[in-house]
Design brief:
Layout: E1 11-14, E2 25-29, E3 32-40, H1 41-49, H2 70-79, H3 87-90, E4 94-98, E5 100-104, E6 111-115, E7 118-121, H4 123-134, E8 143-150, H5 154-165, H6 172-176, H7 180-190, E9 195-197, E10 212-214, H8 215-225, H9 230-235, H10 245-249, H11 255-276, H12 282-290, H13 292-304, H14 312-324, H15 330-346, H16 348-352, H17 354-357, H18 361-371
Parallel strand pairs: 4-8, 9-10
Antiparallel strand pairs: 1-6, 2-3, 3-8, 4-7, 5-6
Length: about 375
């Protein structure tokens, strides 16, 4: 791994060292040496900026992705006077492998001499800090955790690269799982014998699958049925945890609205598959397999007799019916599905490309116009 670098990068990396407060961790095992320390972000930025060809990242499996996504957050934290001190706590830091390192714990000039170094994990962090330093926006209070491993074992270096970069992806849903609204929903759903899944696999073993209400599905059904954003709920669910999060979960409705929407959607999903999932008509079959949120929006409207989602007294008995005898919804689902098929058949642009039609907000508008009797 290391010998692939076209140029050896050496550095005297200045570190924070306090004789009264353990700030450097040294670890030795067999022929492997390790060091964990804290470094000013400027030190990292200087190494990167003095290496315009990026040799220091030769062994890194990722390249810099620009000022977007997570890097946007890294940049914001590292350049703000209010948050720079939090960087050490919020960032995973860097992992460096090298031919050798020598920590010099001189209180007047504590540093680590590193020979033939490679940043194998933390390319996004290191490069973002370098960009901020070049733009003269990097805060002097920004500090980074650095892990340094010394080894000449190429196969071990490969393992370090793999394991430090091979982590389970954290999704937007994961990040919102401990939001106060999610705990409120969890408590609310229990009242109706349902288990609101805030985190993936939260109830993997100990709860009957039919009683688990996955928060993403709950949010999708609410977005489609109550907020009337059917195409987004169906095809752009990533918006749930960002653009629409507050609209969905900010307490605009009682928990009964979410429970009812979820139960309607689950019944519609199974009903469509059972009745039209293998239909001989290609158009009908495609709609049955991909328009469950569209049909759910219409079904809930017919069942409730409108869009009054604040009338809890009316919604509660419907929830009980959904739980005790969900087939009472069948007449509404059947009506909704047939009207949707008719609507799509009538418009050539929809019938010609059903998949594209179901992604379109224009179809959302046509559905609402049909429900309100203005089409």
């Amino acid at each position: 791994m290391l010998e692939k670098s076209e140029r050896k990068i050496n550095a005297d990396l200045r570190i924070r060292y306090d004789t009264n407060n353990p700030s450097v961790i040294k670890y030795y095992a067999s022929e492997l040496k390790g060091l964990v320390c804290t470094v000013s972000a400027y030190e990292i930025a200087e190494i990167v900026n003095n290496d315009p060809e990026g040799y220091v990242f030769d062994s890194n499996i990722r390249k810099y992705k620009g000022k977007k996504g997570v890097n946007k957050d890294i940049l914001r934290t590292a350049t703000s006077l209010e948050t720079a001190y939090q960087f050490w706590f919020l960032n995973n830091g860097l992992t460096i492998v090298c031919d050798s390192f020598d920590p010099v714990t001189d209180p007047d000039h504590p540093h680590v001499k590193i020979r033939n170094m490679q940043i194998v994990n933390g390319c996004q962090t290191a490069t973002t800090l370098a960009v901020a330093a070049k733009d003269k926006t990097l805060s002097k209070d920004t500090r980074v955790i650095v892990r340094i491993y010394e080894t000449s074992d190429v196969s071990l270096v490969d393992k370090i690269v793999l394991t430090t970069n091979n982590q389970n992806r954290i999704t937007a849903r994961d990040l919102k799982s401990n939001h106060p609204t999610q705990f409120d929903m969890e408590r609310g759903f229990v009242k109706y014998g349902l288990f609101y899944e805030r985190k993936p696999y939260q109830y993997k073993k100990d709860v009957e699958a039919s009683k688990v209400a996955v928060n993403e599905v709950v949010a999708q059904s609410y977005l489609a049925i109550v907020l009337k954003k059917i195409s987004d709920a169906s095809r752009r669910k990533y918006k749930i945890w960002d653009e629409y999060f507050d609209d969905i979960f900010a307490g605009h409705s009682e928990v009964e609205s979410y429970v009812f929407c979820f139960l309607v959607y689950k019944h519609v999903e199974s009903w469509l598959e059972k009745n039209y999932g293998a239909d001989d008509d290609d158009l009908v079959r495609k709609i049955a397999k991909t328009a469950d949120f569209h049909v759910s929006r219409m079904t809930a409207y017919y069942c409730l007799g409108g869009d009054n989602w604040r009338d809890v007294r009316k919604i509660k008995p419907l929830i009980e019916q959904c739980k005790d005898s969900p087939t009472f919804l069948d007449v509404h689902v059947d009506k909704a599905f047939k009207k949707l098929v008719s609507l799509i058949r009538r418009k050539k642009k929809y019938a010609a490309d059903v998949e594209n039609a179901l992604k379109s907000s224009l179809l959302d508008e046509d559905i609402n116009a049909m429900l309100y009797g203005v089409s």
